[in-house]
Amino acid sequence: MKDLVAGIGHSKEYYACGDGWIQLIKRAKHIVRKYNLKHKRDTNFEPLEFVDIKEKFGYLNLYLNYYPKGMIKRMLRIEHASFDYCEICGTKKTTKMRELHHWYMNRCDKCYKEEIQKYNERFNVGSKES
């Protein structure tokens, strides 16, 4: 889990995904910041904040404390864009949805090979001693 200060709200926010999606997260936070600045003087305004940012089923999931008109569509566009980028390194080249022992992940060829190697080392897959 990585730490990313949002610059909105009163608390630090955390995200549970790879660094390859940082630019998408920054884009989403920029949209929320602009919304908050535009509406901060409105009567009964409640600041829009992220309550969770994580990877789930191989793509980026962005959760807000509420969804004003048009915001769901804007967040979904960013979530769908995560299918194009490797969650680990951020490249678009060779990136696609992969599966490793029932775990879904969005990886490029290079990062997927590294993921398989880590998995095999961790669980002694292919080891003569297992």
Model description:
With 130 residues, the chain is an alpha+beta fold. It has one domain. It is 33% helix and 23% strand. It contains three helices and six strands; from the N terminus they run E-E-H-E-E-H-E-E-H. Strands 1-2-3-4 form a four-stranded mixed β-sheet. Strand 1 (2-4) and strand 2 (13-16) form a beta hairpin. Helix 1 packs antiparallel against helix 2 (71-81).
Major β-sheet profile:
4 strands, mixed
Helix content, binned percent: 25-40%
Specify Rg, calculated over alpha carbons. 18 Å
Note the run of SSEs as H and E: EEHEEHEEH
**Which structural class matches the secondary elements?**
alpha+beta
Helical element count? 3
Q: Report the principal-axis shape.
A: elongated
Total number of beta strands: 6
Which parts are unreliable, with pLDDT below 50 for 5 consecutive residues or more?
Answer: 1-11
Strand content: 15-25%
- Give the mean pLDDT: 87
* Structural domain count: 1
End-to-end Cα distance: 31 Å
Major sheet: order of its strands? 1-2-3-4
Topology overview:
Blueprint: E1 2-4, E2 13-16, H1 22-39, E3 50-56, E4 59-64, H2 71-81, E5 96-100, E6 103-107, H3 109-122
Parallel strand pairs: 2-3
Antiparallel strand pairs: 1-2, 3-4, 5-6
Short overview:
This protein has 130 residues and is α+β, with helices and mostly antiparallel strands.
